[in-house]
């Protein structure tokens, strides 16, 4: 009689099928690619806002507008509403300074967001189609009440 020395073909196929089922059910939990992609997009938006604010402030400084509490887009050399030389926290401020924040862009100002709470110096941007309930996966742009740079906050990867 011949002695069996390993797995049969059926046993090997069953083990491979079980491993495939486990991989399909467990992989999305470990990879979480959509959350990382959303977070990375918002980090890019934060960088774009910071860059645009710096460029607008440079233009305002050249034209002597950096010490004025408010400057409207019509009289501003940069074409955006300013607060102490930096873009105002509004659609006509930072919204005009950053390409892609228009009504048909990838990002949109989220109306009724909890962080706004009626303050005129804060605007919150999220993905187009998000609502006020999507409160963690957003970028918040806050202008200061004095001549200092705006504060821009974005979520960490776990928040999205």
What does this 3D model show about the protein?
The chain is α+β, with helices and mostly antiparallel strands and 160 residues long. The chain has one domain (36-159). 36% of the residues lie in helices and 12% in strands. The chain is built from 3 helices and 6 strands; from the N terminus they run ααββαββββ. It has helices at 9-31, 33-62, 94-97; strands at 82-83, 86-87, 107-109, 122-127, 139-142, 151-153. The strands form 2 sheets. The protein has a 4-stranded antiparallel sheet with strand order 3-4-5-6, covered by helices on one side. A hairpin with a 2-residue loop joins strand 1 and strand 2. It starts with 8 loop residues before the first helix and ends in a 7-residue tail after the last strand.
Shape: rod-shaped
Task: Quote the distance from N terminus to C terminus.
Answer: 63 Å
Provide mean pLDDT, rounded: 81
Task: Report the biggest beta sheet as strand number plus sense, adding barrel if it closes.
Answer: 4 strands, antiparallel
Keywords: Membrane, Transmembrane, Transmembrane helix
Pfam families: N_methyl
InterPro entries: N_methyl_site, Pilin-like
Organism: Vibrio splendidus
């Amino acid at each position: 009689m011949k002695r069996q020395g390993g797995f049969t073909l059926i046993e090997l196929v069953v083990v491979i099928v079980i491993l495939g089922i486990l991989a399909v059910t467990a992989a999305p939990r470990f990879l979480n690619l959509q959350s990382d992609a959303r977070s990375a997009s918002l980090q890019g938006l934060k960088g774009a806002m910071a860059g645009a604010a710096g460029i607008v402030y440079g233009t305002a400084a050249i034209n002597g507008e950096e010490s004025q509490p408010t400057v409207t887009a019509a009289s501003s050399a940069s074409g955006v509403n300013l607060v102490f030389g930096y873009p105002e926290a509004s659609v006509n401020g930072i919204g005009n300074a950053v390409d892609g924040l228009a009504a048909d862009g990838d990002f949109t100002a989220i109306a009724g967001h909890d962080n706004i709470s009626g303050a005129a110096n804060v605007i919150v941007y999220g993905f187009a189609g998000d609502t006020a309930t999507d409160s963690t996966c957003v970028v918040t742009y806050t202008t200061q009440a004095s001549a200092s740079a705006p504060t821009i906050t974005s979520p960490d990867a776990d928040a999205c």
